[in-house]
Design the sequence.
C-alpha cells in the first residue's frame, strides 16, 4: 500500500515539476493582470442558476443587496488576508506547499478529491448549457425536485454536449482558452442586456422611479417557491463568502497569487466578485422573475435576449467547463499512469458527461457549492496553521518534508475529523464551514503541539 | 495599428450590444428589433475581438 502511494506521489511530482521552484522575481505580474483574470473568471454559466435560485429561495431585495455586498467583501478580504500573504511569502503552489506540510501521500488524496469535485462542477455547467439546446428541440428541462434524468431527450442532449465539449477540449484546449477570453466580456454583457430588456416586462418604468417597488414585490419578494428553503441575509452573506472557499480560504489560489508583487493584490479579486458574483446574480434574478420563476437558464436567456442569449448560455457553459475539464484531467493524472493528455481529458469528460445528465447537479447547485468548499476547507486551515501559528508557538514546521513522511497522519485526521464533525453540526449547511475551519485550525495546532511535548 | 483598429471596433460593438437593450428599456424600439440588433452587434464583437486577439499573437511572436 505504502509502495503504491509512493509511486503515485512520484508520478504526481513529475506532473507538477515545472512549478516546483518558487516563482522568480522577474516573473511577477502587474495588478492589472490580476484584475483582468478575476473579471474574466467569475462570469460563468453557473451565474445564470445561482442568481435565479436566490429568487426561488424567497430572498428579499434588501437581504440580497446587503448580503452580496458584505459577503463578497468578506471573500475579497479572505483572498487578501488569508491567501495572498502566504502566496507571496512562499511563491509556491498549494500542491508543493501542502507536500512539505502533509506529505506526498496526502497530496495524492487531495488531488483525487479535487478531480471528482471539478467533474461535478463541469457537469453542472454542461447541464446549464443543455437547457439552451433543449429549448431548440423542445426537450423539457427537469424540475427543481428532480434527481434523476426525466427524459431520454435530456440524457441525449447532455451526452451530446458533454461529448462535444470533451472533444473540443481534446482538440485544442489552448485555443479554447483564448476563445474564452474573447467570450467573457460579452457573456457579462448578455447578463446586463437580458436583465435590462426584461425590466419593462416586469413593469419597471423608463425613469426607474418604481424599480425598487418592482424589485421588492415581483422579483425578490421574500416568497420561496414550493419545496425550497427560505434564505435570509445571513445565508446570502455566507453564500457569497464561501462561493469560492476552496480558492481563498482553501488556498487553491496560491497558484495564482504566487505571481503577485504584493499581498495587497488580493484586493483585485473585487473585480471578479462585484461584477460576477453580485451584478450577474442580480441580473439572472430579474430574468427568472420575468419568465414566471421557471428554473430554465436557456429559456431565461432566450426570452431576455433572443438567439444571442441562448448562444450566451451555451458559450458560458462551454468556456467554463473547458478549463474545469482540464483541471480535472490534470488532477486525475495521478491515477492514470503515463496516459497521454487526450486520454485523461477523455476520462474526465466521460465522468463529467455521465454526471451532467443528473439534474440534481444543477438543481441543487447552491448546496453543491457549499459542499465543494467545505470538503477542501480543512486543508486551507492546516496550511494556515502550519504557516502562521506553529512558528508563533515555537512548534517545528514542515515535519513531513524534514522526516520524509509519506502522509502526515495528523493532517489527514484533522481533514476527515473536521468533515465528520461538520456533518453533524446542527446548523444550516451554508454556515458549517466557519466553525469547521476553526475546529480544523485548533485541532491541527493541538495535535502538532502534542507531538512537540512528546519529543 | 491593426490591433488598435480592431480593438476599437470590438469595444464599439460591445457598447452597441448595450445600446439596444437600453433603447428597448426606454421604449424606443420593439423587442424583436432589440434582439436582432443585439445579435448583429454580438457577431461584430466576436469578429473584431478575435481579429484583435490574433493580431496580438502575431506581433508577440515576431
Sequence:
Amino acid at each position: 500500500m505504502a509502495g503504491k502511494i509512493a509511486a503515485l506521489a512520484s508520478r504526481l511530482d513529475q506532473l507538477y515539476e515545472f512549478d516546483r521552484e518558487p516563482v522568480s522575481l522577474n516573473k511577477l505580474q502587474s495588478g492589472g493582470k490580476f484584475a483582468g483574470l478575476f473579471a474574466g473568471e467569475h462570469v460563468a454559466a453557473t451565474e445564470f442558476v445561482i442568481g435565479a435560485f436566490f429568487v426561488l429561495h424567497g430572498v428579499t431585495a434588501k437581504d440580497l443587496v446587503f448580503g452580496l455586498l458584505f459577503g463578497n467583501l468578506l471573500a475579497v478580504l479572505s483572498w487578501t488576508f488569508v491567501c495572498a500573504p502566504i502566496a507571496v511569502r512562499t511563491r509556491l503552489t498549494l500542491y508543493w506547499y501542502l507536500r512539505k506540510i502533509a506529505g506526498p501521500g496526502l497530496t495524492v488524496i487531495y488531488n483525487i478529491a479535487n478531480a471528482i469535485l471539478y467533474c461535478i462542477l463541469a457537469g453542472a455547467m454542461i447541464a446549464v448549457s443543455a437547457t439552451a439546446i433543449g429549448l431548440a428541440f423542445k426537450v423539457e428541462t427537469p424540475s427543481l425536485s428532480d434527481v434523476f434524468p426525466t427524459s431520454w431527450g435530456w440524457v441525449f442532449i447532455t451526452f451530446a454536449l458533454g461529448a462535444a465539449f470533451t472533444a473540443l477540449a481534446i482538440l485544442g484546449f489552448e485555443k479554447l482558452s483564448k476563445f474564452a477570453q474573447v467570450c467573457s466580456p460579452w457573456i457579462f454583457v448578455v447578463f446586463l442586456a437580458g436583465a435590462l430588456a426584461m425590466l419593462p416586462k416586469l413593469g419597471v418604468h423608463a425613469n426607474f422611479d418604481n424599480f425598487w417597488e418592482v424589485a421588492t414585490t415581483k422579483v425578490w419578494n421574500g416568497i420561496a417557491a414550493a419545496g425550497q428553503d427560505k434564505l435570509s441575509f445571513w445565508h446570502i452573506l455566507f453564500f457569497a463568502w464561501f462561493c469560492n472557499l476552496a480558492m481563498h480560504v482553501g488556498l487553491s489560489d496560491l497558484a495564482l497569487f504566487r505571481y503577485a508583487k504584493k499581498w495587497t493584490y488580493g484586493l483585485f479579486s473585487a473585480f471578479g466578485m462585484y461584477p460576477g458574483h453580485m451584478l450577474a446574480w442580480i441580473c439572472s434574478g430579474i430574468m427568472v422573475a420575468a419568465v414566471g420563476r421557471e428554473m430554465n437558464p436557456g429559456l431565461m436567456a432566450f426570452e431576455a435576449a433572443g438567439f444571442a442569449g441562448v448562444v450566451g448560455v451555451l458559450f458560458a457553459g462551454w468556456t467554463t467547463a473547458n478549463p474545469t475539464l482540464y483541471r480535472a484531467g490534470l488532477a486525475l493524472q495521478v491515477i492514470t499512469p503515463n496516459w497521454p493528455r487526450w486520454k485523461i481529458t477523455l476520462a474526465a469528460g466521460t465522468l463529467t458527461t455521465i454526471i451532467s445528465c443528473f439534474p440534481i447537479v444543477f438543481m441543487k447547485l447552491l448546496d453543491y457549492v457549499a459542499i465543494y468548499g467545505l470538503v477542501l476547507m480543512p486543508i486551507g486551515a492546516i496550511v494556515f496553521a502550519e504557516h502562521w501559528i506553529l512558528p508563533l508557538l515555537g512548534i517545528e514546521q514542515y515535519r513531513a518534508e524534514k522526516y520524509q513522511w509519506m502522509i502526515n497522519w495528523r493532517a489527514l485526521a484533522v481533514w476527515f475529523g473536521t468533515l465528520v464533525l461538520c456533518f453533524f453540526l446542527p446548523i444550516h449547511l451554508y454556515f458549517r464551514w466557519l466553525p469547521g475551519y476553526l475546529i480544523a485550525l485548533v485541532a491541527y495546532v493541538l495535535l502538532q503541539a502534542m507531538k512537540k511535548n512528546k519529543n | 495599428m491593426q490591433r488598435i483598429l480592431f480593438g476599437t471596433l470590438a469595444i464599439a460593438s460591445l457598447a452597441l450590444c448595450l445600446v439596444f437593450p437600453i433603447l428597448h428599456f426606454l421604449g424606443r424600439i420593439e423587442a424583436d428589433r432589440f434582439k436582432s440588433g443585439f445579435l448583429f452587434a454580438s457577431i461584430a464583437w466576436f469578429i473584431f475581438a478575435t481579429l484583435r486577439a490574433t493580431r496580438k499573437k502575431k506581433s508577440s511572436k515576431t
Observations:
- The helical segments of chain B are 2-25, 31-61.
- The two ends of chain B are 15 Å apart (CA to CA).
- Residues 36 and 51 of chain B are 23 Å apart (CA to CA).
- Chain B has two helices and no strands.
